[in-house]
Amino acid sequence: MYQSRSEVRLPMLRELHLVVNGKAHESHVEPRLLLSDYLRHELGLTGTHVGCEHGVCGACTVLFDGQPVRSCLMFAVQADEHEVQTVEGISAGPEDMHPLQQAFWTTHALQCGFCTPGFLMTLLPYLEEHPSPSADEVRHAISGNLCRCTGYQHIVEAVLMAAEQMHQESPARA
Ligand code: FES
Ligand code: FES
Question: How far away, in angstroms, is 162 Cα from ligand 2 center?
């Protein structure tokens, strides 16, 4: 049935204030907009990858007030007045890599790299809370992140290497 222009209902927009990677943002978004889509399409932070969109693969993991969450399972409006960190917020660039990023690089813990941002955002807070994990503990920690390329062994090696490196840089943590 034809709807005149005045009858067409525009989606109601909600105001959104949040901090992403230390920078404040103010937006007007549809209530149904996913946080992953907001980060990628509204802010251009395409380091947050979207694989399954069902909370299964972990590729879209970001930190929400310091805790890892699946941004494909949240609406952007749920982040109102909260802080989000994406993979872009870990370091300034290749010359300033976090020990975890450096360890992924050194141990060849990525191939296509699609899963890598999700692993990094899962593991950063994990290493803060578990400075000296065993290989089995690391396997458990990454059990919610899927990688179709590496077979996981090099990722485990990377995490153990990063833990060691972080311990050397800050011995009081262990
Ligand atoms: S895209 Fe979010 S968990 Fe797979
Ligand atoms: S490196 Fe390709 S999916 Fe993990």
Answer: 19
